[in-house]
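Fold it.
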Amino acid sequence: MRIQTLRERLRALGALPKHQHRVLRLWSNALPQTSGRRQIEHFLPATLRAELPAIEADLAGLARLESQHPGEDGSARLLVKLGDGQMVETVLLPRDGVCVSTQIGCAVGCVFCMTGTTGLIRQVGSAEIVAQVALARSLRPVKKVVFMGMGEPAHNLDNVMEAIELLGTAGNIGHKNLVFSTVGDPRVFETLPKGPVKPALALSLHTTKADLRERLLPRAPRMTPEALVEAGEVYARATDYPIQYQWTLLDGINDSEEELDGIVRLLTGKYAILNMIPFNTVEGMPYQRPSWEKAATIARHLHRRGILTKLRQSAGQDVDGGCGQLRARAEKPLRRNIPIVPVGS
């Protein structure tokens, strides 16, 4: 379901924009439709009041908790069932964040990601995206939403932008606390600056080598690392939010001295943060997670060379909850096994 479809339903019941805003605000904040200082009898049209129980039931059915997997780090991986029975993953993050999914499956096919093994099954509607946030808020406070779960947000741009607009207004999430994560797509750099809510941007870099990036992200748009960083810098300066560059550390693949020199070359002087995330081990995939000591040494080296680098754990490591793993265990899809070797080996 799309938010626009919900608005049309509300309008058909006599809801004016102020009535629609109230319904959407309470829903996206996981509050009952009877909440608030104003009694609904004195505010909402009678036809809308009569349908509120059915509307609430339909909204609750958009995203239901199938199972919850708490992690020792304060995160919790949620397996969420959508209205048609399809499953997505939503992650409760430490410090009042939530990571939502925007697609069931993914067409990009990043070779180190479990989600990509199924291909794209279907898009997640904008209302289903917001429903994941509402579900999360029913469990704990949420002040930050990152679009880094299953799927490539750039391939579901209309739905994602519609969800961002609602969350950044009625949903009461600060604009810089909405983080749009993408492998990089020219449409993103054209669309995001035009929206009424301009989210922060995270770009999946993973390597400074164009040919290796094509092999790691086989169906991503063919933007070179240089072009990606240049487009990111324009958006960062326009919004005054630093770009978060994502780098999944794969042992022996993208952790060489040559790569570190490339990072310094690309990001020196840029309004940027480099998030280094050691690979989340996935059974059946031919990649290794570097030791924490090795990853920490890399981060310190980049710091000394002037690159703001944050070494991050993938939330839920102890529950094997990397992107797509919970759903994979529930759905048992076929897995690919595509080896990647360093350039020049």
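The chain has a mean pLDDT of 90.
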